[in-house]
Design a protein that fits this description.
This protein is mainly α. The protein contains 11 helices and 6 strands. Among the domains are: 85 residues, Orthogonal Bundle (Arc Repressor Mutant, subunit A); 106 residues, no CATH class. The strands form 2 sheets. It has a 3-stranded antiparallel β-sheet. A 3-stranded antiparallel β-sheet has the order 5-4-6. Helix 2 crosses helix 6 and helix 4 crosses helix 5.
C-alpha cells in the first residue's frame, strides 16, 4: 500500500494559449502594414484580425476616417493579396457596400519574404565590410570605399580634407546583431505561417468531409426511394395476378396448337418423293404397241 501511495500522477506539460498566439500574429501583421503603407493604418489590423466580412463603414467610423480614405488603405492591401472583399447592394440607397476579410496566411508569407530580403542585404554588407576598407570624412560625415578614395587621392571633393580610415569593427558588430535579430524574426514568422497553413488545411478537410457526408446521405435517400418505388410496383403486380388468373391458361393452349402444325408440314416431304417415280410407268405403255405391228 505504501508503494501505491508514493506514486503520483505526472503533471502534463502546459499547452500554449490561443490568446498569446493571436497577439504574436497581430504584432507581425502590424509590422507588415507599417512597411507597406504607414503607422496610421496599423489600427486596421485590430478591426479585421479574427473576423470575416467586416463592413467598410464600421471600419471608417472606428478609424475616424472618411470612406474614401479607408477604401484607399484597403485597396492597397488587396493589391498585395492581404485582404479580400465581398460586395453587396444596398436595397434602400442603391449603391454597393464592401465587406472585408484579412488573409493572415498571405500576410505572414509576404512578411517572411521581406525579412529574408533584408537579411540578404545585411549579409552582403557584413561581407563587404570584412573584406574591404572604408574611409571617412569627419567634417562631411561621408563614408567611401577604398576605390573611390583612390580616385579622389584620399581627399574629400566637397571640403578638400583628407579621409580617415574608419574602424569597421563596431559597424560589423552592429550588422551582426541585426542579422541575428532578423533570423529570430524569420523563425517566428515561419512558425506562425505553418500554424496558419495547418488551420487552413483542417478547414478544407472539414469542408470535404461535409460534402462527402452530404453526398452519401443523398445516395441513401435515392436508394430508399427506388426501393419504395419497386415495392409499390411489386404490390401492384401481385394484385393484378390475383384479379386475372384465367388469362394465362388460353395463352398456353395456343402455343400447344402451333407445335403440331409444324410437324405436319415436315410429313408432307415424303409425299413429293412418290411423284418422282411416275416416269417408270411410261416405258411400260410403249412396249405393247411395238408387239402389235
Amino acid at each position: 500500500m505504501s508503494k501505491e501511495k508514493s506514486k503520483k500522477p505526472k503533471k502534463e506539460s502546459p499547452k500554449p494559449k490561443i490568446g498569446e498566439v493571436d497577439k504574436r500574429q497581430i504584432k507581425l501583421l502590424k509590422s507588415v502594414i507599417e512597411d507597406l503603407i504607414n503607422k496610421q493604418s496599423v489600427e486596421i489590423i485590430d478591426l479585421l484580425a479574427g473576423k470575416k466580412n467586416v463592413n467598410e463603414f464600421a471600419i471608417a467610423e472606428k478609424l475616424k476616417l472618411t470612406i474614401n480614405q479607408t477604401r484607399n488603405i484597403l485597396y492597397k492591401l488587396s493589391d498585395f493579396g492581404l485582404v479580400s472583399f465581398i460586395r453587396k447592394k444596398d436595397k434602400r440607397k442603391g449603391w454597393y457596400i464592401y465587406f472585408w476579410t484579412l488573409d493572415i496566411f498571405q500576410s505572414l508569407s509576404l512578411l517572411e519574404e521581406k525579412l529574408k530580403n533584408k537579411l540578404k542585404i545585411l549579409e552582403t554588407q557584413s561581407h563587404n565590410r570584412k573584406q574591404g576598407r572604408h574611409y571617412l570624412c569627419t567634417t562631411c560625415s561621408i563614408e567611401v570605399n577604398e576605390e573611390t578614395a583612390l580616385l579622389n587621392d584620399f581627399i574629400c571633393p566637397e571640403c578638400e580634407e583628407v579621409y580617415e580610415l574608419s574602424d569597421d569593427s563596431e559597424v560589423i558588430e552592429h550588422i551582426g546583431k541585426n542579422i541575428d535579430k532578423l533570423k529570430r524574426e524569420i523563425i517566428l514568422v515561419s512558425e506562425e505561417r505553418i500554424k496558419q497553413e495547418e488551420k487552413i488545411g483542417k478547414e478544407k478537410q472539414r469542408k470535404i468531409n461535409k460534402a462527402e457526408k452530404e453526398k452519401q446521405l443523398k445516395r441513401k435517400l435515392k436508394r430508399e426511394e427506388t426501393k419504395r418505388a419497386k415495392e409499390k410496383l411489386l404490390k401492384k403486380e401481385g394484385k393484378l395476378k390475383k384479379k386475372k388468373p384465367a388469362k394465362k391458361k388460353p395463352t398456353n393452349k395456343k402455343k400447344s396448337k402451333k407445335k403440331p402444325t409444324k410437324k405436319a408440314t415436315k410429313q408432307k416431304k415424303p409425299i413429293k418423293k412418290k411423284t418422282k417415280n411416275k416416269p417408270s410407268k411410261k416405258p411400260a405403255k410403249k412396249k405393247p404397241t411395238k408387239k402389235k405391228k
